[in-house]
Amino acid sequence: MTALKPSLPMLSFFLLLSLYSNTFIHTALADGVTPEEAKQLRDEVREMFYHAFNGYMEHAFPLDELRPQSCGGEDSLGGYALTLIDSLDTLALLGDRDRFAASVEWIGKNLQFDIGMKIPTYNNELLNLAEDLARRLLPAFDTPSGIPFGSVNLMHGVDEHESKITSTAGGGTLTLEFGVLSRLTKDPIFEQVTMNAVRGLWARRSRLNLVGAHINVFTGEWTQKDAGIGTSIDSFYEYLLKAYLLFGDEEYLFIFQEAYAAAMHYLYNDPWYVEVNMDSAAVVWPLFNSLQAFWPGLQVLAGDIDPAIRTHTAFFSVWKRYGFTPEGFNLATLSVQHGQRSYPLRPELMESTYWLYKATRDPQYLDAGRDMVASLQYSARCPCGFCHISDVEFHKQEDHMESFFLAETVKYLWLLFDLAVGPDNLVENGPYKYIFSTEGHLLPATPEISLVQEHCSYFGAYCHTGNMQNESSASDVASNPQETNDGSLYGRVRTRFPSGSTFSDSTPISGLIKGVCPGLTHGQKFGISYVASSHRAQEESRNLRKPTVAESHSLVVVPGQTSEYSPSENKNYHEKFSESSVGGAVSDTPQKR
């Protein structure tokens, strides 16, 4: 392929990577986790959550985050009790009704951006707060490209000296939250601005269907042209597919199909991913960075299981080697990248481990989860919570615990082991199916949000040429699918994957997928065409191999029956909230970590 006409050193480099990964496969698997041990591990993860949560409530609340080693607190986002907010749906997932209710009541009464809310009983306080916050973020989208500024003052709007450079992930990762808000408030403005931001980014993709890492929101010029699946880009890919799954908008699916095919064609070097120049596809950075670890989980949602398994094995080999994944692991030297030695309790590898176990029920993922729990318990546990690891080789602790540890890291571990025991939680057994946000929060696919029936009624409507083909369910779904979860929301997203990506027709999958509409590009269907840089010579890409145009497929999911969820009762937990209040004025727009 154009990206990699490898020289002899480059061939040797990828051969070493392959040997490294294959060696791990034969040596790393732990003894199998028994059902009883899975239950013990689930309870251990629950205790880990409460060790950190109680440490925050006792020593840091209502400040944003906990200092777990010194048992203090710090404001990192403006003083909004960030860790409490981030922990809400984990409390709900664990069935802790009392603490969840007390937390919601406190937030409704005390959280403010510059005004107070004093409502004695819950009456849409969180929705009102979300709408208030979103309206304060709207000025960030007032740019010529539609791509938002990276930050905004919540009281005064965008500062006149605010940087015009933002990341692709920051510009393309508000789709789910703003889309849900539009559906709940019946105000389309939130969904419209985030869709325009995605269109603005995608219209400026390269001729290879790759996007860079940073862009000028006024000129639309890419200021960093390194294309990858990790830092500064990761959740752009994630939200394309998840927005389609939650909202049924086929424009997101169209973009995802083309973007995913390009990523697998130019970035994937089985089982690793590299960063390349978005225009020439020349390798610029042979590095595994820890944020890439979400990718196998996303591939599970897309139905591309085989490469997800191989990549997870490679990524987990790094964890096994150091006890944690460093922020950067150099694939050329097979060593920790200089200046990227830390592990800030990131959840992405746990997330992919959970999704792969859910899809395959392979016990190796329980073994992986057990190893992760052991590393966290033995090396990261602090007196009042869990500490960042500043050096993965020496397991040196740092006095900081970001809120996502409670929102994501322990959540995915708990879900993994609860699934093995026999799930008793709202994600698996609740009245709705859920999409996880990039921060691990649960977004329910309710009729009000997902509009599944409306989506189905317009199935295939965009095919005007009369060549609509209906495929039988047998062609899209395994004849006797071993469902990972009865009535799973997720079906297989069909696309013409490149040869480097194996699409497994034997993958256990559920849902009903119908229809194919070949031949239309994203630009033909939605009028979004490629925008070339004004500084790029026209002949630059003439000799580059054009990526395969992905087929369009309408995907319709027919959910199964659901069962009622009855979370267990817990002790009252109100005393910590009675004496605290919080306020603040300045914050950044949400950015991917």
- Please give the radius of gyration in angstroms: 23 Å
Count of alpha/pi helices: 20
How would a crystallographer describe the biggest sheet?
3 strands, antiparallel
Order of strands, widest sheet: 4-5-6
How far is it from the N-terminal to the C-terminal residue, by CA? 32 Å
GO biological process, one term: endoplasmic reticulum mannose trimming
Binding site for Ca(2+): 438
GO cellular component, one term: membrane
InterPro entries: 6hp_glycosidase-like_sf, EDEM1/2/3, Glyco_hydro_47, Seven-hairpin_glycosidases
Task: Describe the protein's architecture and organization.
- The protein is mostly helical.
- It has a domain at 124-257 and 427-457: Glycosyltransferase.
- Helix content is 41%, strand content 9%.
- The chain contains 20 helices and 21 strands.
- A 3-stranded antiparallel sheet has the order 4-5-6. A 3-stranded antiparallel sheet has the order 7-10-11, with no helix packed on it.
- Helix 2 packs antiparallel against helix 15, helix 3 (82-93) runs parallel beside helix 15 and helix 9 runs parallel beside helix 11 (295-302).
- The longest helix has 25 residues, at 35-59.
- The model is unreliable at 1-30, 115-120, 452-518, 537-574 and 581-593 (pLDDT under 50).
